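Lecture notes, unit on protein representations.

Consider one protein chain, 328 amino acids long.
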Amino acid sequence: MRKFIIRRLLQSIIILFFVAFIIYALMRCLPTSFIEAMARQKSMQPNSKSYEEWMQQLTAMYNMDGGILIGFIRWLGNVIRLDFGDSWRWTIPVTEKFKEVIGLSFIMGVISFFFELIIAIPLGIIAATKQYSKTDYAVSIIALAGISLPTFFFASLLKLVFSVKLGWFELGGVVSRDYPQLDAFGQFLDRANHLVLPIVTLVVISMGSLMRYTRTNMLEVLNADYIRTARAKGLSERKVIYHHAFRNTLIPIVTIVGGSLPGLFSGALITETLFSLPGIGFISYVSEVSGDIPFTMFYLVFLAVLTLLGNLIADILYAVVDPRVRIS
């Protein structure tokens, strides 16, 4: 296992290098950039230099005057020293802006992912064990509704019902106007109140696919020969389902769980925008459309690292979930 982990880490480093180069090349080929917008803005000021002169000056200032390969080597040299530069859009260090907004998205991601697991997996198992029953049809309808509902429609519906009509939750934002006057517990409740609807949106939209995936794999396992043998031996139905069948269903579920790691940090662009939440999803979108190469590079490479790490964790969990899995 140790050799496997070391080999996979080395492979991940090589993959990450090429992924980072591709991302940097794409960023340099964007049709617009923050430098062009800044040069255009400065050239329109009274008694200012021309647009071409500003472009030349700003390009040299931000080390964009070389080719893509030279620029990538310079960027990589700074990254090795953990220097990701300053954000062009937010005018502060990239890592500082990232720390400022990642907490909100991470909290929402972890909470929604937890509820997604404890709701979708049990319902998927129940639907499989009661195939073609009313329960199965009800779970399937819920799952298909979660898969089919657009995020913006469901979030707007929640805001209309629970914020506008009932007034139970705030329409958006992170805190209320009277937040500074509240005590510590009151501030906690105020923040929690603002996050209820966004989290509900994320849970409902994302749990449908996991629910269907669990049901499908559970049905496949329940029809296996060893399940019939276990029942013929007189084992209780509960032990057959949760001890024999569910352990084999966990293998494909582990793949989804490992692949969900980047989602805990990537944020939810549509949800954060609709609820006016300054999370990493919304901030990264604004940075990308503004041509903010330093922040966008950091964010995309960070997601690439999480993706590789999630795949590695999934491979390791295979051996934990199923003893038949052996790594040679």
